[in-house]
């Protein structure tokens, strides 16, 4: 190859330059595919990746974070808010820095969300082995801590020569953009290889515009799906995240549901696909579902699983609707998900499938009595929502009341962010989402610590929206450092911190399965004689640069939310809540095994109820 046709770059420089050249078409406009790179530098990446990122800092921004798991959560949330069309990279040092990203990689894998992970690695040459932070395996010298990324990556490669990037980088990007295989891609970067140079073809860095594929259905599968629907009188659609990720998916679903009179229930990932006030939207389904959606699911004759992976919270541990044997039609871009639970599979992009089905169904509709029942159930549930989210004057309100206040404050232009604990369940069944982009709850991995970091990623993706992070004291204590990042970068968040002095959600589950309080609430834990500390969360948040205050009751919260909206930087609002209160209405059984033998009668009684519910599972 001639000299003028090559560019001599280090592996790290080539990687950054390649990423900078990638664009994606969104709504007819070309925008950078990567919004930049989160980086925490250490001896495994500062000399190689650090030098390369510095050189491209004007065109490929680098953002400093405070925790590797947190920055990866933020990057994943950024991609989710962009419906998988834009993404970020994350680079860390070797050893603990790399391992800190593994949990967030698992989250991205479970939720099928794209993030490019670039952990530093030990020396390929092994000349200085063992280096600081290196884990040695006596019988496997090539094993490093980065092998932990293999089970939580959709694509993994360890780059041992610079020229391997020529094959590995395009493959990593193809995975990140693939509607079926989408998930984290990891390129482990040994620190000596990062700094090694190679004569790369100049064409490798040519600008490239990507478009996400929208595969259509097989004709025979489509015909079989038509037969299933034509035979249905009481169909129910379960809308999952795949509807949001399909270009035009929410609009296609609204048209289909309106044209054919089919009620639509929502998974956590699919919530917001239809606005809460849409006439066909009967709300959340499953363990944290509405009474409306679950009642319909229990009597539907056809369930259309649209863009959902049918997690146990969606199916009520396969006991909500499967016990009465409805036909299950799985519409999904991934064969793995479309065929789950013996479904009649229609493998296709959600938008393409809905349009093809509607065209061939013509004037077919769900039965009139079914549509009328759906409307009644929906109306009844809306009255429940109004009642349980209303302020009753309690100084320690229920989660539902707090979320009602957040919902009213967010309106149609805000986005609520949450992840683990009891809050996602209350949000799923009660929050009135205004449409796509208004509801951002991570519940595929249910990862404590995602909330604040995820809120940062959402704000970076949608700076025009007010971002409301709802977080319990347990999750806040696990991972709060990206509050400082949000202040440093100028990405304002409104954080509502519910302090129930413990892990309230698991406390309630423990009461339901074991009948005691043990090691969840502070009052049930081993402590020093003076007990657990009273944590001043507002003072802590102020130390990280935030505005912060304590409030009492819903009236105090609503006043504080007004002040927070007017503030120019991240604001934390803390209030005491009741750990024992949860919305009794809605929901269904969840398979959490109870001890088969116990010295305590309370456990034995609970085991009887568990065995009875197990009989419903398909």
TrEMBL record:
<feature type="domain" description="Thiamine pyrophosphate enzyme central">
    <location>
        <begin position="222"/>
        <end position="357"/>
    </location>
</feature>
<feature type="domain" description="Thiamine pyrophosphate enzyme TPP-binding">
    <location>
        <begin position="421"/>
        <end position="573"/>
    </location>
</feature>
<dbReference type="GO" id="GO:0016823">
    <property type="term" value="F:hydrolase activity, acting on acid carbon-carbon bonds, in ketonic substances"/>
</dbReference>
<dbReference type="Pfam" id="PF00205">
    <property type="entry name" value="TPP_enzyme_M"/>
</dbReference>
<dbReference type="InterPro" id="IPR011766">
    <property type="entry name" value="TPP_enzyme_TPP-bd"/>
</dbReference>
<dbReference type="GO" id="GO:0005948">
    <property type="term" value="C:acetolactate synthase complex"/>
</dbReference>
<dbReference type="GO" id="GO:0030976">
    <property type="term" value="F:thiamine pyrophosphate binding"/>
</dbReference>
<protein>
    <submittedName>
        <fullName>3D-(3,5/4)-trihydroxycyclohexane-1,2-dione hydrolase</fullName>
    </submittedName>
</protein>
<keyword id="KW-0378">Hydrolase</keyword>
<dbReference type="InterPro" id="IPR030817">
    <property type="entry name" value="Myo_inos_IolD"/>
</dbReference>
<dbReference type="InterPro" id="IPR029035">
    <property type="entry name" value="DHS-like_NAD/FAD-binding_dom"/>
</dbReference>
<dbReference type="InterPro" id="IPR012001">
    <property type="entry name" value="Thiamin_PyroP_enz_TPP-bd_dom"/>
</dbReference>
<dbReference type="InterPro" id="IPR029061">
    <property type="entry name" value="THDP-binding"/>
</dbReference>
<dbReference type="Pfam" id="PF02775">
    <property type="entry name" value="TPP_enzyme_C"/>
</dbReference>
<dbReference type="GO" id="GO:0050660">
    <property type="term" value="F:flavin adenine dinucleotide binding"/>
</dbReference>
<dbReference type="GO" id="GO:0009097">
    <property type="term" value="P:isoleucine biosynthetic process"/>
</dbReference>
<dbReference type="Pfam" id="PF02776">
    <property type="entry name" value="TPP_enzyme_N"/>
</dbReference>
<dbReference type="InterPro" id="IPR012000">
    <property type="entry name" value="Thiamin_PyroP_enz_cen_dom"/>
</dbReference>
<dbReference type="InterPro" id="IPR045229">
    <property type="entry name" value="TPP_enz"/>
</dbReference>
<dbReference type="GO" id="GO:0003984">
    <property type="term" value="F:acetolactate synthase activity"/>
</dbReference>
<feature type="domain" description="Thiamine pyrophosphate enzyme N-terminal TPP-binding">
    <location>
        <begin position="38"/>
        <end position="133"/>
    </location>
</feature>
<keyword id="KW-0786">Thiamine pyrophosphate</keyword>
<dbReference type="GO" id="GO:0019310">
    <property type="term" value="P:inositol catabolic process"/>
</dbReference>
<dbReference type="GO" id="GO:0000287">
    <property type="term" value="F:magnesium ion binding"/>
</dbReference>
<dbReference type="GO" id="GO:0009099">
    <property type="term" value="P:L-valine biosynthetic process"/>
</dbReference>
<comment type="similarity">
    <text>Belongs to the TPP enzyme family.</text>
</comment>
């Amino acid at each position: 190859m001639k000299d003028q046709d090559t560019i001599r770059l280090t592996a790290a420089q080539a990687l950054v330059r390649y990423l900078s050249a990638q664009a994606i078409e969104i709504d007819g406009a070309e925008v950078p595919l990567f919004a930049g790179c989160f980086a925490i530098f250490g001896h495994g990446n500062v000399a190689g990746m650090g030098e390369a990122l510095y050189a491209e800092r004007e065109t490929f921004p680098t953002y400093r974070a405070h925790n590797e798991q947190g920055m990866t959560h933020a990057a994943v949330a950024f991609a989710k808010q962009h419906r998988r069309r834009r993404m970020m990279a994350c680079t860390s040092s070797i050893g603990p820095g790399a391992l800190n990203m593994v949990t967030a990689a698992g989250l991205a894998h479970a939720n099928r969300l794209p993030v490019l992970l670039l952990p530093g690695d030990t020396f390929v040459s092994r000349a200085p082995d063992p280096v600081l932070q290196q884990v040695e395996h006596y019988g496997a010298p090539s094993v490093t801590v980065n092998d932990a990324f293999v089970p939580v990556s959709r694509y993994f490669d360890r780059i041992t020569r610079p020229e391997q990037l020529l094959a590995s980088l395009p493959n990593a990007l193809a995975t990140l953009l693939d509607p079926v295989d989408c998930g984290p891609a990891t390129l482990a970067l040994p620190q000596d290889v990062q700094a090694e140079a190679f004569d790369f073809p100049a064409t490798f860095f040519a600008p490239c515009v990507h478009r996400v594929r929208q595969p259509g259905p097989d004709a025979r599968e489509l015909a079989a799906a038509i037969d299933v629907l034509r035979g249905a009188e009481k169909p129910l659609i379960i809308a999952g995240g795949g509807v949001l990720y399909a270009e035009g998916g929410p609009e296609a679903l609204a048209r289909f549901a309106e044209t054919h009179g089919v009620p639509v229930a929502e998974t956590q990932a699919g919530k917001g696909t239809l606005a809460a006030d849409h006439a066909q939207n009967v709300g959340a389904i499953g363990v944290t579902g509405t009474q409306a959606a679950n009642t319909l699911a229990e009597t539907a004759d056809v369930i259309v699983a649209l863009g959902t992976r049918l997690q146990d919270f969606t199916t009520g541990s396969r006991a909500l609707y499967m016990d009465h044997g409805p036909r299950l039609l799985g519409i999904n871009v991934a064969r793995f998900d479309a065929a789950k639970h013996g479904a009649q599979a229609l493998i296709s992009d959600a938008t393409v499938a809905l349009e093809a089905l509607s065209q061939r169904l013509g004037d077919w509709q769900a039965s009139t009595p079914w549509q009328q029942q759906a409307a009644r159930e929906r109306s009844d549930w809306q009255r429940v929502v109004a009642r349980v989210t209303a302020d009753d004057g309690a100084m320690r309100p229920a989660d539902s009341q707090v979320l009602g206040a957040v919902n009213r404050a967010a309106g149609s232009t805000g986005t609520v962010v949450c992840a683990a604990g009891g809050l996602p369940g209350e949000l799923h069944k009660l929050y009135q989402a205004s449409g796509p982009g208004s509801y951002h709850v991570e519940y595929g991995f249910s990862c404590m610590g995602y909330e604040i970091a995820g809120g940062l990623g959402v704000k970076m993706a949608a700076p025009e929206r007010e971002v409301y992070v709802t977080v319990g004291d347990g999750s806040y204590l696990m991972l709060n450092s990206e509050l400082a990042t949000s202040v440093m970068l100028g990405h304002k968040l409104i954080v509502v911190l519910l302090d129930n002095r413990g892990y309230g959600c698991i406390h309630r589950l423990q009461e339901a399965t074991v009948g005691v309080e043990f090691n969840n609430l502070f009052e049930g834990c081993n402590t020093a004689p003076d007990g657990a500390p009273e944590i001043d969360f507002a003072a802590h948040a102020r130390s990280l640069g935030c505005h912060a205050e304590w409030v009492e009751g819903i009236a105090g919260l609503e006043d504080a939310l007004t002040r927070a909206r007017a503030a120019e930087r991240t604001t934390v609002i803390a209030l005491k809540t009741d750990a024992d209160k949860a919305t009794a209405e809605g929901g269904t059984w969840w398979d959490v095994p109870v001890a088969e033998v116990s010295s305590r009668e309370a456990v034995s009684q609970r085991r009887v109820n568990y065995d009875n519910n197990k009989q419903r599972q398909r």
